[in-house]
């Protein structure tokens, strides 16, 4: 019998290996040792193996094959549990992405005008700006007529004795004297100063230096290229008889743009009655001149007449519109008369003015024909001057259907009506536009008067006036009325009427 002896250093390792082997077979190492189980210690030859660390030698045991050891625990497998169903994920329904709106460039915000608050009085309340009405006269100025027999020293003597400041002194042929303007310093009232001047024997007349404005035009959206005024005034027939050849006409207005092709060679003389620096032309006078003597795209009523451009109005820095005064207007009227204008076109309005009335009356008595716009104040407006003066031909405006201009003044001073609504006129920088107003109607009648004077140069102002009124087409209430006057004027009929009246014709005709 071969026996294993205890080898130092390996005893613990061998015991551990044996224990692990027994556990692998499902046996308890402790019980196996107590029952002297020797299956692991017996070789196939029947020899007993002596394991180190054993206290006694086991006897030989015949191995028996009886199956599994009864002490082997039964492995209880877990009951099958089905895997829980994975919950179905409900995906959201597909929604297409909304289209991004097309980028639209925003409109630029209008620029807010800058306000110079430094000049605004501290006590001025905030809020929308109040449009100041235009007064009838210059508050601190007075216009004085001094008889021509008085020497020039009277002007300064009056200023010194009354504490006034002389602004200008201009000789006036129509009034046979001098027009002197004074400024009133301090807080003295204008009526008091006028009363003192009127009482002075050296003064013929004293009055406020009144304000005049052009009878404004209103731009129109009309797009017709034809001038309906040609047919309304029967100009095609009239031009076969007369075209106003060489008749001098004073356009007392804002000045005329002589570079406009419509007015080529129409303006023969120019004068600046304002005299406040380099003249700056405004569009109103150019429109009036085009309707009188235009050639080309705008056909004037008297295309062969000679225009005298008299700049009388200037753009006022506060009221921002063409503006003049009694003193400037008197200077313009006098220059026009001295330079032999046969017709004065007066497309402006203002208050009753004794000095201006006296100058126009003198011009009329010396053979000048006066044509003025009735005014654009509306049916309830007060009479507009100079149209409302005696001996002045006052013109109101019609459209292409012979309807009265909405903004035209009404009154018994009206003479006749003429086209003045949606009328094609020339403007600055060689341009054109459509405009409306009684000033345009007045320009048509000014040209008509030139046709009559070319054919009948010896005709008086009264004969001219009668021929125009007697041949007019009656509109509105029967006879002369406060809306249309005698009715729509007719150039051809006026020429025939003046000829029938027995007025002498131009020599050779």
H/E element sequence: HHEHEEHEEHHEEHEEEHEEHEEEEEHHH
Segments where pLDDT lies below 50 for 5+ residues? Answer: 1-6, 35-51, 53-57, 115-131
- Characterize the main sheet: 7 strands, antiparallel
- Taken from the alpha-carbon principal axes, the silhouette is elongated
Structural class: alpha/beta
Under CATH at level 1, the class of the largest domain stands as: Alpha Beta
Q: State the CATH architecture of the largest domain.
A: 3-Layer(aba) Sandwich
**Strand proportion:** 15-25%
> How many separate domains make up the residues?
2
Total strands: 17
Name the CATH superfamily classification of the largest domain: Peptidase S8/S53 domain
Please tell me the overall pLDDT: 84
Q: State the end-to-end distance.
A: 181 Å
Number of helices: 12
How much helix is in the residues? 10-25%
Kindly report the CATH topology of the largest domain.
Rossmann fold
Using only C-alpha atoms, the radius of gyration works out to 58 Å
């Amino acid at each position: 019998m071969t026996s294993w002896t205890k080898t130092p250093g390996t005893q613990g390792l061998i015991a551990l290996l044996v224990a692990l082997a027994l556990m692998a077979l499902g046996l308890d190492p402790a019980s196996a040792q107590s029952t002297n189980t020797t299956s692991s210690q017996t070789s196939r030859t029947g020899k007993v193996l002596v394991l180190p660390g054993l206290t006694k030698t086991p006897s030989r045991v015949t191995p028996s094959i009886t199956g599994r050891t009864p002490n082997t625990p039964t492995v209880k497998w877990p009951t099958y549990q089905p895997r829980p169903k994975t919950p179905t994920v409900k995906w959201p329904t597909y929604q297409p992405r909304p289209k991004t709106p097309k980028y639209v460039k925003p409109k630029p915000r209008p620029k807010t005008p800058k306000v110079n608050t430094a000049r605004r009085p501290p006590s001025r309340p905030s809020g929308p700006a109040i449009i100041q009405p235009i007064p009838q006269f210059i508050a601190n100025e007075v216009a004085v007529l001094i008889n021509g027999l008085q020497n020039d020293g009277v002007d300064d003597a009056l200023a010194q004795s009354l504490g006034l400041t002389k602004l200008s002194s201009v000789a006036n042929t129509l009034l046979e004297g001098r027009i002197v303007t004074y400024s009133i310093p301090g807080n003295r009232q204008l009526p008091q100063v006028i009363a003192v001047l009127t009482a002075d024997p050296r003064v013929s007349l004293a009055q406020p230096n009144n304000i005049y404005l052009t009878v404004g035009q209103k731009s129109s959206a009309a797009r017709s290229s034809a001038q309906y005024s040609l047919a309304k005034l029967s100009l095609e027939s009239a031009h076969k008889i007369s075209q106003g050849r060489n008749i001098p006409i004073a356009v007392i207005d804002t000045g005329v743009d002589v570079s406009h092709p419509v007015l080529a060679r129409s303006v023969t003389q120019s004068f600046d009655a304002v005299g406040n620096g380099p003249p700056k032309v405004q569009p109103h006078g150019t429109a009036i001149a085009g309707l009188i003597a235009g050639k080309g795209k705008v056909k004037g009523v008297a295309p062969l007449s000679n225009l005298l451009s008299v700049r009388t109005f200037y753009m006022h820095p506060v009221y921002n519109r063409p503006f003049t005064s009694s003193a400037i207007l008197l200077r313009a009227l006098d220059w026009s008369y001295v330079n032999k204008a046969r017709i004065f076109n007066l497309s402006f309005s203002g208050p009753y003015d004794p000095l201006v009335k006296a100058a126009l009356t003198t011009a009329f008595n010396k053979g000048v024909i006066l044509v003025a716009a009735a005014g654009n104040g509306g049916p309830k407006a007060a009479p507009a001057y100079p149209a409302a003066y005696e001996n002045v031909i006052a013109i109101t405006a019609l459209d292409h259907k012979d309807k009265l201009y909405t903004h035209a003044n009404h009154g018994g001073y009206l003479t006749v009506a003429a086209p003045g609504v949606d009328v094609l006129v020339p403007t600055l920088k060689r341009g054109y536009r459509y405009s409306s107003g009684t000033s345009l109607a007045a320009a048509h009648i000014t040209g008509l008067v030139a046709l009559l004077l070319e054919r009948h140069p010896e005709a008086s102002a009264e004969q001219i006036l009668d021929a125009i009124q007697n041949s007019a087409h009656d509109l509105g209430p029967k006879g002369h009325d406060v809306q249309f006057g005698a009715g729509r004027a007719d150039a051809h009929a006026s020429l025939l009427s003046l000829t029938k009246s027995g007025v002498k014709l131009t020599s050779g005709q």
